[in-house]
Amino acid sequence: DAAKTRVEQALRQLELAKNRHSYATLLAPYDGVVTAMRMEVGQVVAEGQSVISLAKEGEREVVVDLPEDMVSKAKQYSAKAQSWSDPKTPVSLHLRELSPIASAQGKTFRARYAPTAESSTIMNGISLGSTAQLQLSLPSSDEGVNVPLSALIKTNNTPGVWAVNSTGNTLSFVKVSVLNHGTDSVRVRGLNEGARIVTVGAQKLDASMKIRPIERINGNFETRGTL
User: Fold this and answer.
1) Predicted pLDDT at 213
2) Whole-prediction pTM value?
3) Quick one: which of 91, 131, 141, 199 could link to 148 by a disulfide (CB 3.0–4.6 Å)?
4) Same-domain check for residues 51 and 68
5) Same domain for 41 and 76?
6) SS in 3 state form for the chain?
């Protein structure tokens, strides 16, 4: 009986070893493209550890993480994407899915955009895993104005900019509506034509401060004040 028990234990250990050995061979569940490798040759990995990300072949989509202030209007934005491999061919998109839960790290919301019917052919020609620039804009008769991204601040979760008052040495917080985001600038609505705004160090200012404007004109800086 003791010998029989040892044989049964040995068989169970053998079966367990075979199962563990089979885990070393990774088989893709479907055709696709590897988008990420999370291990190196010779590295020892734990059981259940993710080592490869696989994107399934099929209709392409653009995945982006939206900041919280854009989530409420996510369905109102018109969306276009430009692949870095072919920036001259924009792709029209529509919102397919928006996560209701913010990410733990950046407090952003994962959004997935699918191509419109007329852009499907162009989108399917873009390689999986490609990087693209997403442009979001709100439909409006007021096209707004572009301001440097560094000028945009938030007060009580309200976007705005610091505008220089007519006296030239005090500030007012002007609320704006964000129409779309660019790489270095943002298009906003709510600024009066010709308004002077703070573009450097806006996060460090408040309305009680006295300032001396240093204006940037055609790429050059011009200081206005009394010597």
Assistant:
1) 75
2) 0.46
3) 199
4) no
5) no
6) CHHHHHHHHHHHHHHHHHHHHHCCCCCCCCCEEEEEECCCCCCCCCCCCCCEEEEECCCCCEEEEECHHHHCCHHHCEEEEEECCEEEEEEEEEEEEECCCCCCCCCCEEEEEEECHHHHHHHHCCCCCCCEEEEEECCCCCCCEEEEHHHCEEECCEEEEEEECCCCCCEEEEECEEEEECCCEEEEECCCCCCCECCCCHHHCCCCCCCCCEEEECCEEEECCCC
